[in-house]
Amino acid sequence: MENQNPVFIPGPTNIPERLRKAMSVPTWDHRSPEFGRMFVPLLQDLKQPFGTTRGDVAVFTASGTGGWETAITNTLSPGDTVLAARYGMFSHRWIDLCERHGLDVKVIDCGWGEGAPIAAYRDALAADTDHRIKAVLSVHNETATGVRSDVGAVREAMDAADHPAMLFVDGVSSIGSMEFRMDDWGVDMAVAGSQKGFMLATGLAIVAASPKAQAAMETAQLPRCYFDLRDMLAAGGKGSYPYTPAIGLIEGLRESVNMLLAEGLDNVHARHFRIAEGVRRAVAAWGMEVCARHPELNSDTVTAIMVPDGFDSTELVNYANETYGVSFGIGLGQVAGQLFRIGHLGQMSDVMALSGIATAEMAMKDLGYPIELGSGVAAAQEYYRANSAVAQRKTA
Amino acid sequence: MENQNPVFIPGPTNIPERLRKAMSVPTWDHRSPEFGRMFVPLLQDLKQPFGTTRGDVAVFTASGTGGWETAITNTLSPGDTVLAARYGMFSHRWIDLCERHGLDVKVIDCGWGEGAPIAAYRDALAADTDHRIKAVLSVHNETATGVRSDVGAVREAMDAADHPAMLFVDGVSSIGSMEFRMDDWGVDMAVAGSQKGFMLATGLAIVAASPKAQAAMETAQLPRCYFDLRDMLAAGGKGSYPYTPAIGLIEGLRESVNMLLAEGLDNVHARHFRIAEGVRRAVAAWGMEVCARHPELNSDTVTAIMVPDGFDSTELVNYANETYGVSFGIGLGQVAGQLFRIGHLGQMSDVMALSGIATAEMAMKDLGYPIELGSGVAAAQEYYRANSAVAQRKTA
Amino acid sequence: MENQNPVFIPGPTNIPERLRKAMSVPTWDHRSPEFGRMFVPLLQDLKQPFGTTRGDVAVFTASGTGGWETAITNTLSPGDTVLAARYGMFSHRWIDLCERHGLDVKVIDCGWGEGAPIAAYRDALAADTDHRIKAVLSVHNETATGVRSDVGAVREAMDAADHPAMLFVDGVSSIGSMEFRMDDWGVDMAVAGSQKGFMLATGLAIVAASPKAQAAMETAQLPRCYFDLRDMLAAGGKGSYPYTPAIGLIEGLRESVNMLLAEGLDNVHARHFRIAEGVRRAVAAWGMEVCARHPELNSDTVTAIMVPDGFDSTELVNYANETYGVSFGIGLGQVAGQLFRIGHLGQMSDVMALSGIATAEMAMKDLGYPIELGSGVAAAQEYYRANSAVAQRKTA
Amino acid sequence: MENQNPVFIPGPTNIPERLRKAMSVPTWDHRSPEFGRMFVPLLQDLKQPFGTTRGDVAVFTASGTGGWETAITNTLSPGDTVLAARYGMFSHRWIDLCERHGLDVKVIDCGWGEGAPIAAYRDALAADTDHRIKAVLSVHNETATGVRSDVGAVREAMDAADHPAMLFVDGVSSIGSMEFRMDDWGVDMAVAGSQKGFMLATGLAIVAASPKAQAAMETAQLPRCYFDLRDMLAAGGKGSYPYTPAIGLIEGLRESVNMLLAEGLDNVHARHFRIAEGVRRAVAAWGMEVCARHPELNSDTVTAIMVPDGFDSTELVNYANETYGVSFGIGLGQVAGQLFRIGHLGQMSDVMALSGIATAEMAMKDLGYPIELGSGVAAAQEYYRANSAVAQRKTA
Predict the structure, then answer these.
(1) Of B134, C67, C241, D199, which cross-links C205 as Cys (Cβ 3.0–4.6 Å)?
(2) Containing domain of residue D75, as a range?
(3) How confident is the model at residue C386, as a pLDDT?
(4) Number of folded domains that form chain A
(5) CATH code of the domain in which B105 resides
(6) Do C62 and D226 touch (CB under 8 A)?
């Protein structure tokens, strides 16, 4: 905590100085007109990283879990059926949250390392001829396994089955970093969090709701108040807030969106790909494998790296933290001990990524992994050189 | 927003520099052992401002409204009856929240400016011979009216009726500033917020649960997940967190509790009384009245001041903000237009309070109120002089 | 130190949040091109608060004393004669600095409370028929006595005597707050400091040199290196710095000048007059006198208030600090014990000023001064009301 | 400027978060007793990194150049002779500063990359039988070449010649990072800067004066006022300051010294050696040479790396900055174009150092240097692994 090393956890990210400052504000009156003057355009601009023009965005003081809760309690009723796939810890937890709210969750269990099971979704939807399934849940970027799913294909499966269910997507670790096309993919509820692609401290759950989801709010019977989206959208439209807002985080979000839009979302996505690809080259140079089963599943915000048989990834992560003062992500749930994760989202640079790769190498070597020092670094360097920020810019 | 004037809203407060810094932290790994080393003792120390040794404290990323939701969803089941009194906007909103969660709320409506209706509570409880009432709700300090209620007397009423209901108390604008005796008063759920007595930014709902409330968690059927107190208490006990914590706010809370305990809670309470009393002297010198119907109801964190007939307090508050760059609180709900509020909690000093009083005088004079400039200031000065911080210290 | 009360010392001022942030920067490379891209236009823009288009500005890491040293060592030679008037502690110290550098200072001693002695200057210059006087020194705003001198009249006296001496002016506590017309007044060296009208932390001496002063640099024999203006101007012109610059302070200065120019210097000056006038009304209401001998000498950045016979102003200042946590300025030198000073420069607002006035009243009353509580506050309120920021804006 | 990459310039360093916060303070009254309560013990504690108990320390608002000026103007008179060696840009500039102050500097010119020329010093002193040399100047750590000189040997040479001259040492880029033994080495004036080993922003020149130097102050005739050490030492002893101090930087220095002493100066020095040695291993792995002519001359705060014939180090440094957003130091003066410098002082960690090494590799490869990617990283990793912070601690 007392060093200046970057963190390599898959969120919260290394907070840019500009956002550190934007978030740290003296108290001012959230009921004054200044609040609305900031908040209304922010809610509009937030639509861009979600890829929506038709949906509306709301900002809650909560972590991503609160965003999940917002999505379901505002649109569903006790006993409703939802279809979900489990392929990592976060898809698992969202399912658990649904069950705690009395929903009947049809779970498609997949291998951890796989993405959203398109065929299985399609089959389940096709079989649901009386349309008991009210919502399909999908985690866009499974932070636990470094897997990005094809949400567009989920939508296609739903359309193929001609199924009227809503589509809810967890984009907590993708939105703001990786392409997200809410309207094109027909997403009805999308959930993001301040501490990931928005590069802020934890504390805001950002939720976008399609017109269809908003219509569902009128009949949904699950109880909610703190996460009541009707209140929040109605207040937001008028530049107010239903209760006391976390004004510093919201000022930070304003600045974060400014940064993302100034850079251009396409550039932001390309940058994340570039940093991630360097890390993947390093993994390959180590002779190790990522958790994602196919290259097209690779996440650009987090890479989950399988450790060789006989090694314990939790020990590796703890060791790196204690010995080198660098935090990586451990394996969670089913993959505990089997993988460690390098988060590379937000304002991560190739220079910072190289220090993470180099540290991982030292820690693995120290613990007897069959690794050659510098090998992953060299592979990443080779990639970053050829695809440097400047090279990138010049060809843009 | 671009000046350095203090705010006089009844929370969020003027944030002390030390807490500005404590809250603003680079990202560090909340899953590392450092987190528990900070968090476990913090949860212990937090018991002191709540006045409990038997209860346990949990910290959620939310505003106070989330604390209310935590209190009821963890202990009650759909259709349960609760008894509540409405004597201001915040008691009203908590009732609304209960109703949205499908609870049957027996509402005792009181005049705004009155405190918790002890006799009415007693009668209602005595009449409830089959103990359908599962919980009694009481707002300790009604921020909308500047009224502090006698929670101990509520407990006595419950005991007099020999009623087994739980007692839930909103201490959002009192805990950390005014005396709160959770154990002595037999409170089962108490709710506080980071942005009031703890002098932090908005973002943490702090909830203490008695053993009885914790027992009720086992059978309560209201759905909850984000605000699930079992998860939070279990995690807290081990120094972890069920999801990503708002680590900056928690570091701020650690420092805030350090400050409160170093000053001594009795001294903190005495300081709030002293500042508040100066404001009340000013009101009296103006020939105006506070909303609180009896002096013993006066809150020490916020003073609500009735404006004379023919004047509109909302206009006054807007005018002061626009003309002098100073924020006061408007009247809410029933008392909209009829009162304005001077918040004086947190690190407010007599010097700062005097500038608020002086500004209110100018704004009132500008708008034609029958007020003598300097009169309230002089009355407050007289009181502060005789009871200055130093005098206070010397006689301590 | 642990409260949020404003300070009322005549600099350093209460630092605006925006400047707190601007000054606090991570290290970046001052030899990179970014430095020049910031610095070159800053040096240009700085000419405006100095009121010069012909002069050039340099920024040294030093306090104002370093600015004085810059002015003389770059333009004079050992044994040179300078003419100076002493009418307060700061004019005294500049004289002392000259003497330590081996200059022959012809001192015109004035009463403290008087301004620059125009007639005496004129007589001395007229008598200096062989033009041995190389420079005339004048303190524009004597911080020790709250006196603003008429620099234009000094120039007229010089011109009347047809004397070729240079004119050096200490504008440390005026530039950026009060009108300063370097070109119109024929000032050759003007000295300002970051911690006064620029509202920053102490650490930058800002010096403007006329073409005549710059010509004198070529022949001046006083040794200098750290404060060598030739190096600094040459480097500044190329966007570099002769040694390591205080980059955070310079970024702060960039933002400060942005703020001043956005508000408009005329508005800045009018604001300072308004705040100051309120303080002066309070002093009059107390039945006390300011140190400045004539109203036209009143400074708009600091008011020096004579205490009644039998009272000790140092005791008053210490008492206010210990009892109320508020800092005023003590009397210095000849006027030690006889006056206390209220600094009201920078981002001071009427609201803040009122708290200073109110605190002074309490402290004086506590110490037995024959003062009526609230009297000064009321007088200031009356003035501020009629001349509020908004009123000001509306008539602008 | 808009990334979070570390800087690798040899000062200012990457500022620790704790010091960022310590330096950023609201204004408080530097004439209040709090100032002395902080400042007096700070001046005492500062003696430790200087390695003195007999000397006294003063803190000026200036950069290191101001420290040089302090050393000579307080102890010497116009025309005095000083003996100095030139072996880099900073020794050169100090000589220039002396000459501008009218001193007669006997310069021993050495190759850049060599250290203090002990034999030449001895010969010159032995030849100076009438003791015209009043002071010997030596740069302990020549930042331009990455060379640490043996100051103890300079003292031995002086003693061998039985010469009474004073010994003045520039420790700007060593004190606080590398061992400095003022008393043992018989140093009379030692100069440090806030932005190097003290890890702060630029702005404080920290000077220690031996009793002998302090005695010389009484007769020295060079003019000085801003840098008058008598005023500063006298004020410091009483906890005051001769003019307005840079209070934020001084608060930062207080915290910095706390950090250094808590870690233990021996540990601080060992840490700097460890980080530096890793960088040197990388240079060796690249098949390149450092500027320092012998291994015992290697600096532990900065490594200057000779580029192969045909390459231009300035181009390399600019390229790395533009392409990868990382700042290294260029070659200065005689060695311009011939070397680039990696600064690794302050809170630099092995993890950060590896990112600098990796970046240098990419930039060199891009520009056609005959370098193998990852080779330097691997060499540094190997060293850091075997000498990690933890390993270090365990064997301590």
Answers:
(1) C67
(2) 17-262
(3) 83
(4) 2
(5) 3.40.640.10
(6) yes
